[in-house]
Amino acid sequence: MAANDVVLKIKGLSKKFGITRANKNIDLELCRGEIRALAGENGSGKSTLLSQIAGMYGSDEGHMYLDGKPYKPASPIDAQENGIAMIVQELGMIGNLPSAINIFMGKTKKFSKGPFLNTKKFYEQAEEVRKKWDLPKLNFKRLASTMNVEERKMMELVRALACDPKILILDEVTQSLSQDNRQVIYRIIRRFKEEGRSVLMISHDMEETMRISDTISVLRDGEMIGTVRADEILENDLKRMMVGRELSGEYYREDKEVSRGSKVLFAMDNISSPTGLENVTFQAYEGEIIAFCGLSDSGIHDIGQLAYGLMKPTSGSVKLATEQGEIEIKSSMDGLCNKMAYVPKDRDGEAMMMKSTIEQNLILPSIEELHRSLGYLKQSDLDRLSIKAKEDFQVKCTGIHQKVNALSGGNKQKVNLGRWMIKNLKVMIIDCPTRGVDIGVKAYIYGCLKEAKKQGMAIVMITDELSEAMGMADRIIVMKSGKIVKEISRNEGFNEESIIEVMI
């Protein structure tokens, strides 16, 4: 490797957060035209390393060199001006601003005319970036707060590409996207490689990591374990490097047959919605996992909000079986009070109270059950439930009074899922259950879902991961343009190519 092939060199980089050492003496060299993946469990230091490169964090020790010159970015804007742009795992847009202004945040001077901003120029410039990189049509006038996770991720992609980067950093981007928008990302990665630009990426999808990267650097407990060529290592060997041990137990379900009870616990009947769903009808049985799959405009993520009464249908009904008989779900309280849960895709924005403690997040769905006579809550009851949930769901933290926003993605999701599963649920609607979590946490979550199925829970799983749907579901329901276009049973045998063919 010639010296002039190296675009970014890192030597002895270290970073601490209080007493926690997130990175320890990291060395890394990235070449022009190289696609480098970082692999490791949640909390291994991957995102911290990328954040230092992108100017989001400073470093306590070590040095970075960009094109052979010392590189020490003071901010993300500084990094972008040096040709390095990052799309972060957690959403990074200001909700009450149009997406075009979000895209050029920190660079608004060039759009100003005296004391005023020329908003038309924002939209024109954003559209130029979109066309240059051949991205799908986007509405740059929409407020970020009105967009779903996937739409905001695509806007963040435009923001990153707007600085014409020589290094693009992707932190768990594809896990937020459906199959069609993932192809957009893959196309951009190929173009970067062809043009001699470089990509640093994190993905907890092992198959994806090995398929699209040239090299993989493995981190464990903040230290660089080693770097391997993607085409020279087997997936199981890579997993062993990441966790330092063999992963025991089955990842997905072992059985190949549908297994469920005879009682219908949940049903949608001819549901249409203001977002474009048309006559969606299905039933979920006790002890059954149903998976919904589809492209970005298919409407699968609306299913969860409609199911839990968070979105009002324009026609049709949502029914839930209760001990008192069948009821119609018209609000989230109807589900909450009748052993039903909804775990949304946007964990940080829609599910969790990020600035609150682990305990406060864990107890929230169980407040009604924890009330004593006269309606008061006893702190010892709250502590007891929280400590048990933390232990049962193996949440790695300093204690139940730690803030949720200090946790890794995998531990956030354990809290997010665990706070519902400590209840005596009958029905769970769960959207993208393993988004942004590592292979160990994925296996753990699948184990929880398998156990819940065994106990008779009906689980409606909405997912952008076809492997997840095929591995876990009794039935897969494929949607396209707001309609159900095919239903496939586990008995028939799932095939990824045939499912994608129906989606498209």
Q: What can you tell me about this protein's structure?
A:
With 504 residues, the chain is an alpha/beta fold. It has 3 domains: 3-245, P-loop containing nucleotide triphosphate hydrolases (Rossmann fold, 3-Layer(aba) Sandwich), CATH 3.40.50.300; 261-339 and 424-504, P-loop containing nucleotide triphosphate hydrolases (Rossmann fold); 354-423, no CATH class. The protein contains 18 helices and 22 strands. The chain has helices at 46-53, 76-81, 99-103, 119-132, 149-161, 179-194, 206-212, 235-243, 300-307, 332-336, 347-351, 358-363, 367-370, 379-392, 409-421, 439-454, 466-472, 496-503; strands at 6-17, 20-31, 35-39, 61-66, 69-70, 84-87, 112-113, 116-117, 167-171, 198-202, 215-220, 223-229, 264-272, 280-285, 289-294, 315-322, 325-328, 340-343, 427-431, 458-462, 475-480, 483-489. It has a 6-stranded mixed beta sheet, with helices on both faces. Strands 18-19-20-15-21-22 form a 6-stranded mixed beta sheet, sandwiched between helices. A hairpin with a 2-residue loop joins strand 16 (315-322) and strand 17 (325-328). The longest helix has 16 residues, at 179-194. The protein is globular and about 70 Å long.
Give me the secondary-structure topology.
Blueprint: E1 6-17, E2 20-31, E3 35-39, H1 46-53, E4 61-66, E5 69-70, H2 76-81, E6 84-87, H3 99-103, E7 112-113, E8 116-117, H4 119-132, H5 149-161, E9 167-171, H6 179-194, E10 198-202, H7 206-212, E11 215-220, E12 223-229, H8 235-243, E13 264-272, E14 280-285, E15 289-294, H9 300-307, E16 315-322, E17 325-328, H10 332-336, E18 340-343, H11 347-351, H12 358-363, H13 367-370, H14 379-392, H15 409-421, E19 427-431, H16 439-454, E20 458-462, H17 466-472, E21 475-480, E22 483-489, H18 496-503
Parallel strand pairs: 3-10, 3-11, 6-9, 9-10, 15-20, 15-21, 18-19, 19-20
Antiparallel strand pairs: 1-2, 1-4, 4-5, 7-8, 11-12, 13-14, 13-16, 16-17, 21-22
Helix pairs in contact: 15-16
